[in-house]
Amino acid sequence: MSVFLGLLENVLEEGLIYGIMAMGVYITYTILDFPDLSVDGTFPLGACITAALITSGVNPWLSCVIAFFCGALAGSVTGIIHVRLKVTDLLSGILVMTALWSVNLVVTRGSSVLPFYNKPTIFNSGIAKLFPHEVYTHRIVIIALLCVLIVKLTLDWYLKTKSGLLLRAAGDNAQYVTSLAKNQGNVKILGLAIGNGCTALAGSVLAQQTESANIVSGTGMVVMALASVIIGTTVFKRVRIIKQTTMAVLGAIIYKACLSIAMQLGLPTNFLKMLMAVLFTAALVSNNLFSKGKGDQNGDKTRL
Question: Each residue's pLDDT tens digit in the chain (304 positions)?
Fold first, then answer.
């Protein structure tokens, strides 16, 4: 029983953190219909910036905010390359992802790994110290859940504002945005900034959990995030009371649960990336079959 509870807590810790990234990819992929590969670069960007700031004595919560805005800046660059320079969406993301590799190395002063053990983080300082002794061992889950709730409620609120409605319209009907005398290119850049800001924030939180930043931590993040969004929207598609942002978070938890169960069953770690690809393929196929079975003729954005 204790093994099961330990596994469940581990799944919730990582699933919630990656859920922040999944909500960001939900903005870019599901709402904007933009396959944003720069996610593989903005995730470690958030981690590296956080590590550099914390080692310099910056407050860990402020580090999260700074990481968000740095990720948003990188996402804006992706949008500008695509909208202003007329580069395709895939190439725009690849260009930014490649450039961020060098940026991350500069941030970490040339080191591929930047540890900050025994430094204050959001998990061992501030509000974490206020937790009673009985729940202190579960502080990572509690604080990760707090971060997810803050991001989710903020996104849900934003998507109901005038700017948020324009963002949703830009993905569904760009001509409608233009007819409102709004620049749909600017709306797309804003959406990419928000999405990559969330991704960098997830990298920041994960770095503080592990107390280190690794510039290769972004490898495969776009696959994981897309799989999480597709799993969440497929499994909970018919549950009307669950918002899309919540579906993305739940999808990330399910995805991490599948990986953890496979590891517990003895799957060698060398096959982890292959298992991620298999899970992504299974999510795509099941989503397409489910949509076909329901006679969805309106075009589902979670289908590739």
Answer: 677 778 888 899 999 999 999 999 999 999 998 989 999 999 999 999 999 999 999 999 999 999 999 999 999 999 999 999 999 999 999 999 999 999 999 999 999 999 999 899 999 988 888 888 888 889 999 999 999 999 999 999 999 998 898 888 887 777 777 777 678 889 999 999 999 999 999 999 999 999 999 999 888 899 889 989 988 988 888 888 899 999 999 999 999 998 888 888 888 878 887 888 888 888 888 877 776 655 554 445 544 4
pTM passes above 0.70: yes
Q: For residue 144, what are the contacts with CB-CB under 8 A and spacing of at least 6? A: 12, 13, 16, 17, 205, 209
Q: If you search the block for the tokens 């029983």, which residue do you land on?
A: 1
What does 181-202 look like in DSSP terms, one character per residue? Answer: T--HHHHHHHHHHHHHHHHHHH
* Angle, CA of 260, 261 and 263, to the nearest 5°: 65
Structure tokens at 65: 């905010």
Q: Residue 73: how many CA atoms within 13 Å on its side-chain side? A: 10
DSSP string of 118-149? TS--TTTSGGGGGS-HHHHTTHHHHHHHHHHH
Read off the DSSP letter of residue 112.
Answer: S
CB 144 within 8 A of CB 16: yes
